[in-house]
Every structure is written in structure tokens, then in C-alpha cells.
Fold:
Amino acid sequence: MTDNQNPPPLLEASGVSKRFGAVVALHDAALRLRPGEIVALMGANGAGKSTFVKILTGALRRDNGHIRIRGADTNFSSPAQARKSGLIPVYQEPSLIPDLDVADNLRLGQTPVEPFLHWVSELGIANLRLDDTINRLPLATLRILDLARALASEPEVLLLDEMTAALPTDLVERVLGTVRAQADKGQAVIYISHRFAEIAQICDSATVLRDGATVGDLPIVPGVEEQVVELMLGAALETNPTRKAGAARAASGGPHVQVRNLAVGTKLRDVSLDLHRGEVLGVVALEGQGQDELFEALAGMIRPTGGKIVIDDAAVSFAHPADAIAWGLTFVPGNRADGLLMQRSVHENIALPLLARPGKWGAIGMASEASRVNDAIARLQIDTRAMGEVQRLSGGNQQKVTIGRWIAAGVDTLLLFDPTRGIDVRTKRQIYLLVRELAAQGASVLYYTSELAEVPAACDRVVVIFNGKVVDVIEAAEADEQTLMRAAYGLTGEALPA
Amino acid sequence: MSRIVARHGWTLGLLAILVLLFAFTKVIQPNFGPTGLDSLSRATLPFAFATAAMAIVVIAGGIDLSVASMMAVAGVTTAVMMDGAGTGMTLFTVVAVLVIGLGMGAINGALIVVTRVPDIVVTLAMLFVWEGVALLILKAPGGAATPWLREIIVGPFLVPWLPKSFVFLVVCLAVVWIPLRRSRLGLSIYAIGSDELAAYRSGIAIGRTRIIAYALCGLFAAMGGLTLTMSTGNGEPIPGPYLMASVAAVVLGGVVLGGGKGALLGPIIAVFILRLVRMDLTLMSVDPNVTTIVEGTIMVVVVMIGGVLAMRGRRQ
Amino acid sequence: MTDQPAPLKRVLRFMGDNPIIPLIILLIMLIGVLEYMRPGIVNERWMGNTIKFAIPLAMLAACQTLTMLTGGIDLSAAVAATISAFVMATQVPIMGVPLAICIGLIPAILIGLVNGFGVAFCRVHPLIMTLGTGLIGTGCLQVYQRFVIATGSVVPDGLAWLGTGRTWGLPNSLLLFVPFAVVVIWAQRRTGFGRLLYALGSNQTASRISGVRSWQVLLALYALSGLIAGVTGLLYVGLIKAPSLSLVNPLLLPSVAAAVIGGTSIFGGRGGYAGTIVGALILTVLGTLLTLMQMPEGARRILFGLIILAVTTIYIRLTDQSR
Structure:
């Protein structure tokens, strides 16, 4: 669609790197964008996509590398500066001020009203009133308003992050058509999406990130999906110890936990699954497909808006995590900061559930507590050099503490949400082994992971969730990364019951 | 029409309550007239300014516990500077006190932004500091206000039923609030209280906006201190009961603790409601101490309801 | 994390971990300055007096310490203490001493329960909630006073003995305070309830995930805080011997300052009662020092405010580096 040599790139990023403490989020990210071009920015969870977007839009500063706009080196220190250079983002979550009305929001962002209204009607929203308060408008409308606001300020580079995620199909078509038309008039667009169909429809090329570096730049041609998936996964896969899948599932009776048509708001729409004793059931999904809500509903953190949870043939409902714990459902959250008393000792962190009930508020049996805690520490091989404050432990050891808490309290059903995110290989192995060992002793484990490679090592079966629904159930033996990735991107097509 | 009712339902409801209370007052005290209204309005002045001060920081998503102490500083400064002052000095004092108010508020805001200590702790510490400053300026009640200043807030304005003090209040608030409300700065204050991340992404300088919000809070507090000294005729270094009263009026006035919502009108009506309740209880010859209890209970219950509403809001 | 911390940072971190050691050094330095300014002032009698006045402060500061561990505060503690003292003293002529003491403690516990209700169920910020109940409490006390104005008030001999008496040069109030302090320090580490205070103050979400129902803890905590305040009031009226409507109020701000200086984080999860006791002693000595220097009341308040601000800023910096 555009000549490869001419015109010169509008935006060119190369060698961009960013560290957060010891974690390298980006080390060699690159992107090149010409006027009139739509480039898809792709990458699996944790590839550094969101960090790259933040750097491009001025929300974060890069450590190294170059970003040139029309050949001039830039280093934005705030989103306001990026805007001034003509780079306007539409973020994944609405960035309008919820308590102000539309007109005030336009004034705040110094957006011209006439073009804004033009784009609003162009994008298919009728009867918008400027005195509507933002927090009374539906999410889909807000996404459109965000886009209209961006278009009205006539950006040179438009960055769309999961623009179509909350939109009904008719609006999606409108948005895609409008974006393509704008590009044909010479606007450059960075398009971030999990949906291959949309990318194939409007993008000129795809830039793929893996492990913080740009690994490829592919022109969009029919059948490019396979290439993109391959690039996202990488060639040299680390081989994990594989096991005989499904062998550990206990023969005794029916499922231990049954989830039927569970729904939470608009995120989790309809999930059914069975979790047996002695089984590790994997959950695989792209970010934000409803898996957070699934785990939080099972843990009693939030109330489901539909469906039911059955434990050993008894229908249950949880008003508080304490109720879930009473039914044996214990939760290890994805964000370790949510699970830990960062300023307190390893001992206190592990012993916490033992003291939760008012009946345990009296004197602590220090000896028996110590033996339980020390058992858990020994079993998980927690590094005991920095016992005094959990915040001084490494990420891997912190994760062991959140798991160790439930080992000390006794495990029945363990809900592990991405327990190996950002921790070292050795600790990962220990966690797989522990999970298998717990299952072998009769526990049930629901295991969400963002690292597809670890599924065969840890799980017996996998449910794949896309757009709030179960789209596939795969036996661990067949769950190679290609299959899982395709399923996670909704490429299998038909929905299957679990 | 129905849109206006829907959007301003809370304020209209408050207005209805206020009217009912006035009717009730007239029933229990048939000779309630312009004089009664005048003294009610004058007694409400410092509370109204304290409420306006609190409202502006709460809208910006903060809170300022040092409002009453800043009023005390402004009050004693006025009393000391005006003691025996001529017209020129009096005018200078008014300007100086307002500037001092802006300064105190800006210091509060800057400390919050710079130290990154939560607003509630910083302003608690500053509550002690400003209280100490007031005591250093004036150890015991004393000083004086220029007598003709008092005339500005005593008696009726043009018609018997319109107290001068009420006009004074409306003018003072309007001069600051109306230009602010529609300006980009005013919108920014709402924006940082409503959603800080979205505000940042819209290109708003969060820290600067916060400092300005606190400075305006200081300005209103200074107006409150000034009018307090104007109406009593001397300076009082010990802060009055304006902190709790202003928080309660703000919450009752429809400004949600947590920020982004509400305006000045609601809290000002709420402050008149709370004052009128107190006056009615006095008229019904209820023990003034019981009145204090009733008032305190209303405030605590209002804050508790506000807390529950804020919790609901977060859940949705 | 991987970087070697600079020596200054290491010293700061050590102090952050063991605030009691620098605090004791500070206390000794203050006493040294006092002795230097007025040689001979530091003797057995002075020490007895200092301890005698530090004890009610330290007890009231226990309310602040325990509530602060959860990220709260109790600004109604002084009012609750005053009410207990006043009600007890006025009930003695009618009910006799033991019953009067019981009756005196009831309103304090009630105030605590109301605080707990507001904080736990309505999620009102503890500062606002306790400030409000304090105001209501003051109003109630004034109304109560009008009913008992005729009966007069009596401070029981036992309380006066406990508050002002000495045995072998040591204040008798240590008889109450030492067991109290031992129990609080033991309970904060070695009981489930104490641990949950730290847990709630460190991370509400983590506590929730672990099955802690925070309302149970908060309700019990604020009721307990009210009870401790009430007992403090009884002791303090024994020391002052003249019940009044604002008896304990001057101790409120110092009690907050004592807990903050003692290393208890106002955001919760950090600190403990041992530091608070040293903080109370430091403030009492500092008070003597400021009186000797003829520091006016206004300057003292400014100093209190700045101390609280400075100490919290330092603690924020100390904890920030790891986040």
C-alpha cells in the first residue's frame, strides 16, 4: 500500500530499553512508522508491549535508545509533551474524567468541539449530548469518545491500544473503516490488538515483541498469523520436564469443584469447568479475558453476577474470602503485593490464616505455630536469610511465602494466579514440583499461567478462556505452545463446553 | 427541565429542607423576622467560609484538617493589625490576611506534594503548627477590628429580609468560585479529584493543581477568620469548632469524600441547614449542651452515611 | 535490592528497624542537656516526678499506638478518659467506689464501640470518626455535669494513692503501669489479636485473602482503646485530684506525638508499644526543658506539629526505597 523507501519514517524507535530495579522490561524495542501506514504491535503477555507503549506516549522515560519523530530525537517526560509532538494515544481504559461532562472534558483537553462532534457521528454514535456526564455513559460510547477526541486533535501518529475490546460488532466495523480511511489520507497508526482478524483487515505490517526486544517486522499477507505466533513464542524453547498427563487424577467419584455458567459483570461471561481431586487444572488466557474475575469470584473476593459454584455437590456462595476458606478454597493472588504483609516477617505472613478467626485471638501457641511455619518453610525451601521483612526477599521467595501460608494452614483447593510471573527458573521448577506433589496428595489446584511453556510441566488439563468464555479444553499432553497460543487468540473458532 | 432536576436533585432537596426549616422556625417562633435572619446569617458566616475552604480540597480529592487553625491565624492577625488602625491600614490588613491565607494553604499543599505524606497526616500536623502560630501572635483573646468593617455585615441590604452578611458571603464566594468553576484550572481541580490517572493522561500538572486547590482553601479560611474577627470585634487564638462542622456540611452538601463531585452551592445550603437546626433547638429552649450533642450526632451520622455512599460508589 | 546500600542508608534502615535504640540515646541526651542547664536538677525526686507524669501520657498513647498499628488513630481517647474520670468522681458519693469505677468505664467503652462501628462498617476515616465522637462526648459530659452539679465529686483515696503516692522513692502508679505495659507488649506480638492489628495495618487485601474479617478486629480494637482511655482517666484524676470537664484533653496531642516519635507508623503495620513508652518519657523531659527555656505554648504546638511531620516523612522515605 505504501512505497517502502518513500516517504521517510514519521516515527522511528530503535534500541529502546527500560529496567525496573533488577527486572529488564525492554532491552531492544524498535518500531518504524511511515505516514499512511498502520502497524500492528504484537507480543505475548510480558513481552514488554505495555512498557513500550508507555515510553512512546511519554508516561514513562526510557533508559536508552532513540525515538525520532520526523528525524528529530525526542524524549518525552509527560503525556502532555507527547501530545504536543502530534502523538495521540487512545488507551485501553477510558481516560476521560468520570465526574465531568463531555464539554468540560473537551475543554480540559483543549479539543476543538466541531471536529469532535463530526468524528462522533462519523463513528456511529447518535444523539450524544455535550452535557452528559462521563460516568453515566456506557463503556462502548466512552471508547468511541476517546477515539473521536484523539482524531479531532488531528494527530500525526495515532496509537490505539485494544481499541475494539469493549465494542459491539457494528461499532468495530465503523472504527476499523474510519481508521483505515484516515491512514489512506496519510495518517500513521500504531494498532495494538489481540484480534488477528482485525489486524489482517486494516494493518500494513506487524511488529512483534518478545522478551523486551523487537524480533520481527512482517508485512500482513494471508496466512501471516502462523508466522506471528511463531515469532511471539521464539524458536529456542526451554524444555521442561514432562510427565504423563492426566495420570494423577484421582479415580474417586465426581468433580470436587464444579463451576457452572459463572459470570461477573461484562468481563467474565460464561465459564463452566470441573476441578477434580488430585488434579491440576490449567487456565490459559490473554490478559483481561475474565480470568481475574474467575479467580476472585472463586476466592470470595467478589460476588458473581450469574451462575453457580458447587463444592462436593453443595451449592455455595461466598460473602467474604473467609467463607471460601471455610470451604477449602484458598487463593494466591497474581500481584504479590496484594498477598503479602510486606513490612512483616516471613513467620507472621505464613501464620496469618491460622489466626484469622476470633477464636484464635488469644495467646499464640508459639511452639506449635513455629513447627507448622517451619514445616512450610522447609517444604518450600524458602531462603531464610532475610526473614525479618518479606519486602526484602526476592520475588521467588515472596511467592513461596504466599503459597507457604496455605501449606501451613492445610491445602484442599488451591487457586494459583500466575504464581511464576517474574521469578527465576529454579523457583519455577520448585513450584511445579510442589503443585504436582500437592495434587498427588489429593489436593485440587486451579492454575492460571501467562507462560504457556509451563503448562505441560504443571497441569493435567487446560481450559482456554477468550472474551469471558471457555473456548477450548486441552489435555496437557497436547498442550504445546502453538496450540495454546492459537486457542488463546481465539483462532480455533468454535466454542467448546468444558 | 427534568435533566436539571436529575443533575441537581441533591441541591434542590437541600433547598427544600432549608425552606421547610424556615417555615418550621416561623411556626415555633411567630415573631421570627429580619433581625433573626440577620443574626442567623451572621453566625453562619465563618462556618460557610470554612465549608467552602473544605469543599474545594475535598473536590480535589484531599482533605484539610487545619482549616479551623488557619482561620484562627487569620482572625488573630486581623485583630492585631487592625487594633487602632485607620482606613488605609485596615484595607492593607484585609489584603495582607488574604495573602497570608493563600500562603498557608499553599504551604499545606506543597508539603503534601513534596513529602508524599498523605494529606490527612500533613494537615493534622499543620493543624498543630497553625494553632501554635495563632497563639504566638496572640496569647489570649484580644485585639480589635476596625469598627466600620463590622457595618459591612450587620443589618439588612436594600430590603429588610436580605441580610448584608448574606450578600457579603455570596459576593466573596462568587468572586473566587464563578471564574474558577468554568476555567481550565477549575476543571483540573475536579479532574484530579475524579481520576488522577486520567487527569495525568489529559496533560494536567497534578502537583501544581493540588497546591493551588490547597491555596484556595487557605484563602477561604482566611476570609472566614477575617469575618469572625469582624463580627466579634476581637481575635481568638483557639480554633473554633469549624473542622467537624465543615466536613459534615461538605458531605451533607453532596461533595463526596474522595473527590471529583459536587460544587459550592450544596455545602453552603447545608451549612445554613445545620445552623438553623441549632437555632431552632435553642428557640425550643433545649439545653445548649444538648444542642451540641444533637449537632455532633447529625454530623457524625452524615459522615457515616457519606462513608457508606463512597463505599458503594467505589464498588460500582 | 541488588545494590549495596550506602552506609547512611544502612544506619537509617537500622534505626528504622530498631527505633528504640536511637530513642533511648535521645532521651539520655535530653536529660544531659537538662542537667547542664540546671545542674543538680536530675535527682531521684525529679526522676520519680517525671515517671509519674509520663505514665498517664504513655497509657493514653497506648490507645494511639494500637489504633495506629491498623492505620487508624483515636482522637476521642482524651475525651473518653475525661468522661470516665468525671463520671467516676461524681458517682462515688452516690454509689461507692467500686461501683463508681465500673460506671465510669462504661461511657468510655461506649465511645469506643461507636468509633469501631463507624470505622469498621461505614469506612469513615478513623480520624474524622473519633474527632466527631469526641465532640459528642464533650457535649454529653456537659449535660451530665448539670445533673450532678449538686452531688459534688470525690476522688477515692485509693486512686489518689496510686496517682501521687510513692513507695521506696518509686511512684505507686508503676504498680498499674508495669503490668499494663507488659501485657500490651506481650499481646502485640504473642496473641492472635495483636498480630491481626499489624496484619490489617500492613495490607488490608492480604488480610482479607487470608480470611480475616476486618470489622471484627476493628470493633474490638476501638472498644479496647476506649477502655484503656477510661482507665487512664481514672489514674490521671488520682494524680491531678481535681476532676474537670477538660481534665485529660491537654494529653491528646502529646499522646499522638509519643506514639509517632516512638516509631509507630501512622500508616499502620510498623512499630510497637515499647517505643511509645520511651516516646512518652522523651516528651515529658522535653516539656520540662521547654518550660525551663520559657518556651511559649504556641511554639510548643508548632514543635509538636513539625515533629509529627518530620518523623512521618522520614518513615515514608525509609519504607519507600523498597517499594
The mean pLDDT of chain A is 83. The longest strand of chain A covers residues 23-33.
